[in-house]
Amino acid sequence: ARAAAEAVAVEYGDPWEPPIYTIDAAVAAGSFFDGTRGDERTSWSRTGAALGITTAHDLEAGRDIDEAFAEEGLTVVSGEFRVGGQEHFYLEPMTCLAEPTDDGGISVLSSTQGVDKTHKTVARLLNLPAAKVVSKVRRMGGGFGGKETRTAFVAAACAAAAYKVNAPVRLALRRDVDMGTTGGRHPFVVKYTAAARRDGEGVPKLAALKAQLYSNGGAFLDLSGPVMDRALLHLDNCYRWPAFSARGVVCRTHTPPNTAFRGFGGPQGLIACEHILEHLATELRVPPDALREANMYAEGDALPFGQVLCAGEWRVPRAWRELREGAEVEARREAAAAFNAAHRWRKRGVAMLPTKFGINFTAKFMNQGGALVHVYTDGTVLITHGGTEMGQGLHTKVCQVAAKAFGVPLSACHVAESASDKVANSIPTAASASTDLYGMATLDACRKILKRLEPVRNKLGPGASLAELALTAWLDRIDLSAHGFFSISDERCGFDWAIQPGKHADGTPDQTTRGHPFNYFTQGCAVAEVEVDVLTGDHAVLRADVLLDLGSSINPALDVGQIEGAFVQGAGWTTTEELIWGDEQHPWVRPQGKLLNSGPGGYKLPAFNDAPRTFNVRLLSGADNPVAVHSSKAVGEPPFFLGASVFFAVRNAVRAARASHFPDAADAHLEMYSPATSERIRLACADKIAAAAIGGEAGPAGFQPKGSF
């Protein structure tokens, strides 16, 4: 099959010259998915204008942004921040097995997060009624968002071949093909102007933020629009900006379409916010943490999109205080400073970050889930739900919900598979919302069965086992199966960017007219301590401490594992993992548009040695969450951004190294882009050896190695 594929000659239509591979090139050419470009050069590619698609959205809150910047006594900074993409690198590449059925239909077993997406794509491709197509998933060898939509073309090709030859067909992409065609995390460029001041008591206070966000969506529009939306909705992180104005637009390039990745745009917005705060703190001559602490939201504050932090649900300030004290942050900073003073070629840095991550699909219709529960006469329970298992423990948590409802051991509950003929019209397993949706749907089904069993329990007595109840109910002709369903209430989900904001009584924008994007927030903080080898640019994470509010955890062991994995993956995104494309920054990569490091040999995933040598993870105690199943909170995506604390710790170590060579510029802002690879770290240190390599560009302003942004 591979030999046949390589023998195919592909002829392309008229090329668009020059080709566009980066955000900078797209901005220069005006190539956006924003419905604004319609010149003849882009007619070949069905641009956003031709499709009527727009991804350009604005978010404004507080006082007029121009009036805010016009005030006297402000410290104003401007700059840009760049963050690269990331490869999902799931252990199991895109894989599918398609088998024709004897009724003229087809069954597709696919490694996908989107059972329904696969189901509909195959049915449409083969012109079959949906009832004759079955899409199934047993489990995936990892997904991280990369299998939410991008598995569809693999399943479609596999199903077409199987249907044509009327025989089973299996398709598994090679790793280099998978990496080179399926897309990854969106690279972002954020251009900003921000202002702050010291109040009458000398406390640093934020005043205004104006930002323009660009992302690289690739050649065709996948999920880039909602990814950009979530970046906008997280650009404030945990801080109150009295005047806030942000605009985001997706750039169209000639690279493969980028797609969902753990965090779904949120981490890009969050890390840009923290970079901006670091810039402001430098210019204000205050410690970054002092600026953070002085501007954290308080209960009752409204976020830029209008949602209010209600009493009892805002816990970041508490988590910040507890972790700062428990992790001995100040003592460790002092120890790092002493270490740096004693070592010229090795430097240490400590950084602490907070996070809040909104839980929901911002598209209202997606906040729903179904489940099917069977109780057998031996007292065991079979559950099928709309979610999929990719190693995150969703099936285990759903079984725990059922086991608790029926009062049986966890071993008595089982999830066999996820399938479109058991739970139809399912929502992709994404947005960290699956336990919330499918746990509640399963609980709904269990409660229906328990309601039917009440007369039997009254007859047999409270000590009767589920097996005894089920057998008696079956003999009494009582249904032991139930379909459960759950949806987030209308008041707690959905944000429609097409609706124009209203106006408050004082004339400021009222974003609540657009909706209520998040059901709740998973919140937390992290501290990272690193040591940088100035001569090589290598770094080691000496210690990491994470404190996360997960409400009342259903399974603390699973949740701690998710936090650990997310943290390391987030640290990899901002340090070791760099995608290098054949673009204008890398003209030596041939052919143009090709991914150079399309495998583990060139793409540097975090290894065992990159994980924190001391890793402390704790869940916030005494926390609840009345709007989710068993008072729990989502865990999959929220801890990911906390891995960026490693990036900012590296940055602090680099600043310490630069201070040795440019004492007069020791307090100058360091514009360091992500990922902080060994190359970027080494050259940013700007010592005499680096200066010999990069010449006049070495200095306080810093040198920026090239990157595929």
What report would you give on this structure?
The chain is α+β, with helices and mostly antiparallel strands. The protein is built from 19 helices and 20 strands. The strands form five sheets. It has a five-stranded mixed beta sheet with strand order 1-9-8-7-2. Residues 36-51 have low confidence and may be disordered.
What is the fold's blueprint, element by element?
Blueprint: H1 2-7, H2 23-29, H3 48-51, E1 57-62, H4 65-69, E2 75-83, E3 95-100, E4 106-110, H5 115-126, E5 133-137, H6 152-165, E6 169-172, H7 175-181, E7 188-198, E8 204-218, H8 224-233, E9 243-252, H9 266-284, H10 288-294, H11 316-326, H12 329-342, E10 346-359, E11 368-375, E12 381-385, H13 394-406, E13 413-415, E14 418-419, H14 434-460, H15 466-475, E15 481-487, E16 502-503, E17 509-510, E18 520-533, E19 539-549, H16 556-574, E20 614-619, H17 644-661, H18 678-684, H19 688-694
Parallel strand pairs: 4-5, 8-9, 12-13, 19-20
Antiparallel strand pairs: 1-9, 2-7, 3-4, 3-6, 5-14, 7-8, 10-18, 11-12, 11-15, 16-17, 18-19
What's the short story on this structure?
This protein has 709 residues and is α+β, with helices and mostly antiparallel strands.
Please count the beta strands (DSSP E, at least 2 residues each). Answer: 20
**Number of helices, counting only DSSP H or I runs of 4 residues or more:** 19
User: What share of the residues does DSSP label as strand, in percent?
Assistant: 15-25%
Silhouette = globular
Helix content percent band: 25-40%
Label the structural class.
alpha+beta
Based on CA atoms alone, the radius of gyration comes out at 27 Å
Which stretches are poorly predicted, pLDDT < 50 over at least 5 residues?
A: 36-51
Average pLDDT level = 94
First-last Cα distance = 35 Å
Please summarize the sheet with the most strands.
Answer: 5 strands, mixed
Going across the biggest sheet, name each strand in turn: 1-9-8-7-2
